Amino acid sequence: MIPDAIAEGFKLLTSAGLVEVTQELADAGDGHYRFRCLAPVPIPNAEGLPGAAEVEVSIPGAFPFVPVEVFPVDPAVRGFPHQDAETHKLCLREERHAPCDPSRLCTYVQWTVDWLASAAAGELLAPGDPYELPDFSRRELRPALPSKKSVWFAESEESLGLWKSHIGSTGTAEVVELGSPPVLLAVRFIAKDGSLIWQPRFSETFGGKPSPLCARWLLLPRITCFRHRPPQIYKELQQMLITGGAAQLEELYHELWLSRESNAKFSVLLVGTVIPRRVGEAPTEVHWQPLLLENGTAPTPDFHSKWAPVKQEQQWRRFVRRGGIDENKQLPWGTSTNVAEERLRSRGAVAGPLQTSKVMIVGCGALGSVFAELLVRMGARAVSLLDKDHCELGNLARHTLDGRSIGINKAVSLATRLAPGAPFCTIRAFQVQIPQFETEDGRLALSALREAEVIIDCSANESAFEWLSQFGRRHGKRLAHIFISFDALFLTLAVSGRHTSCAKTLRAFYEKLRGGGLGMGAEELREYLREPSKEELVIPGAGCWHATFPARLNHIQTLTAIAFDVLEDILKRPPRCDGWAYVFRRGSFGGDAVQRRTIVEQTCFGMFR
User: In the chain, fewer beta carbons within 10 Å around the N or the C end?
Assistant: First the structure.
């Protein structure tokens, strides 16, 4: 039985007269309900489409709370932008623009009519629109791809100039397989003459131990063979290679076959082209799309044997005879992502010294871990983490780590977790307590401190802070000291000046604060300076003194995010002789507090010598 909402939607559609129904609504037996109709198309048109195109409309059983899918039945309606290359499904407007009632079906059908009109006029990608890559999806490929891992590459306007003289050419590439993150990383591109073309600046701490793959690159003037559709079979790609003046596809495949590793199940052919940022504009970058080529199942000969070349050729001919490179075989397009720094920073990035300088975070507890998260995820290039403690179960209420880190040093575990998502950030970890640098790790940590340009102290250790303040003053380092109150009601940020140490700044700040010179009211000052009682530091039933800390993670994150913005702004300015100090208070939302306070307010700040 057809659900009431779908039946009502179909009744509204037929009465609206938008299309001519050619096949009545029926249960498809797979949780969807389908019908076919003729949708009008303006004629004559630039793409030579007929005056009416037959489409199949698929309605999920959860209608009207899910998208409706539309597939053209007419073979003329294929190869367009905003269209799936395999199933030919139309990519219509965003679901949020459709109503959540039975009239949703009429909306989707009207969008289909509009899509067909734009396709017929060649306006699905109009000048000035964001450029859309062709659809390389291979969801229906049989047999399946030899790897599900995506290829990551880094290309931008900076590297585009290096490629312009290599369009229509080919060469070798270095692609490595990573375990964390589980991707294939394109790390070097080499010309036919052996010269280096492009090597992205990936971090030395990114990706762990890589496994090399056999790879080549092929750069074409374009990567579409019919309208906006990429080649789907070997024959189509070969025709594009001939048109673009490149090598024969079988020749490239053969070279990959001969140079493959003995245990490699597949090789990678990166097929590239230059693309613009917007339709009609000049190209701004190279895009690479990988072909994941199977190496066959025949045993690889002993490469030390004098008969190895003969056996390899025999294997290759056997592979070709069995259809390994048949011209009608579907191309095994893999997925790829451009992870260039410009792309990553466009999603929100830190600026100034926090991005470009070497930053050391001392203390990787709740506060330090949140600060490290913000710093690494927002594009910092060099971050060192220092902490002597191991992660315990009780830390997880506020820490960004999880149960997999229990028993592991906090700094080491935090670096391990952040590194896979930071391809351009070098992250180092040191299991050290300041100022004890007698161990090998300690000597490395001291060297990292000397190299650091910005030091952020989140240790909540007064002795460590005093040592860091003196160290920063002697070596000309910018030191930021950040700590929160017992219940995360207040956060204090102190930053050294050019001629004022962080400790001196903080002492001058407290002196002025207690003297009433910063405008903090008496009641708020008492709250700020309050020390927790012994009773508050005891867990009932623990049997002995047990340090507790009732601050919640969301409160720490809220305060830290504000401190991060303020510190970023301070460091972007030319250094002053004076140091800076800020106090931020978290709003309380009990009773009438919504009217009394914002989420976080700056209660006082000043510059001190």
Answer: N
Residues 6+ away with beta carbon under 8 Å from 592: none
Q: At what angle are helices 249-259 and 308-321 packed, to 10 degrees?
A: 130
Q: pLDDT tens for residues 355-411?
A: 999 999 999 999 999 999 999 999 999 999 999 999 998 888 889 999 999 999 999
pTM flag (> 0.70): yes
- Secondary-structure breakdown of the chain: helix, strand, coil percentages, each rounded to the nearest 5: 30, 25, 45
pLDDT of residue 261: 67
Question: Mean pLDDT across the chain, nearest whole number?
Answer: 90
Q: How many C-beta neighbours within 10 Å does residue 369 have?
A: 30
- 437 near 406, Cβ under 8 Å? no
Other CB atoms within 10 Å distance of the CB of residue 208: 12
81 close to 24: Cβ distance less than 8 angstroms = no
Tell me which residue has tokens 């004559």.
44
Enter the tokens of residue 365.
């507890």
The SS3 assignment for 343 reads helix
| DSSP code for 405 | G
Q: What are phi and psi of 85, to 5 degrees?
A: -75, -25
Tokens encoding 318 = 């056997």
Report the alpha-carbon distance of residue 295 to residue 399 in Å, rounded.
46
From first CA to last CA, the distance across the chain in angstroms is 80
CA–CA distance, 262 with 298 (Å, rounded to integer): 11
Which residue, among 131, 110, 177, has the nearest Cα to 150 in the 3D structure?
Answer: 177
Sheet hosting strand 20-27, strand order edge to edge: 20-27, 32-40, 52-60, 69-72
The mean pLDDT of 562-569, rounded to a whole number, is 94
Name the phi and psi angles at 215, rounded to 5.
-145, 150
Q: Which residues pair with 266 in a beta bridge?
A: 294
CA distance 447 to 62: 61
What is the tens place of the pLDDT at every residue in 270-325?
A: 999 999 999 999 999 999 999 999 876 544 555 556 666 777 777 788 878 777 78
Strand blocks (E) in 414-565 = 426-430, 454-457, 478-484, 490-495
Query: Rounded to a whole number, what is the largest CA-CA distance in the chain?
Result: 91
**200 Cβ partners below 8 Å, 6+ apart?**
153, 154, 159, 186, 187, 340
Amino acid residing at 404: R
d(CA 36, CA 41): 16
State how far the Cα of 513 lies from the Cα of 418, in Å rounded to an integer.
38
Q: CA angle at residue 290 from 284 to 295, to 5 degrees? A: 160
What is the residue whose two structure tokens read 């585009």? 160
Backbone angles phi, psi at 229, to 5 degrees: -95, 135
Q: Identify which of 460, 348, 368, 456 has the alpha carbon closest to the alpha carbon of residue 414.
A: 368
Reported residue count of the chain is 609
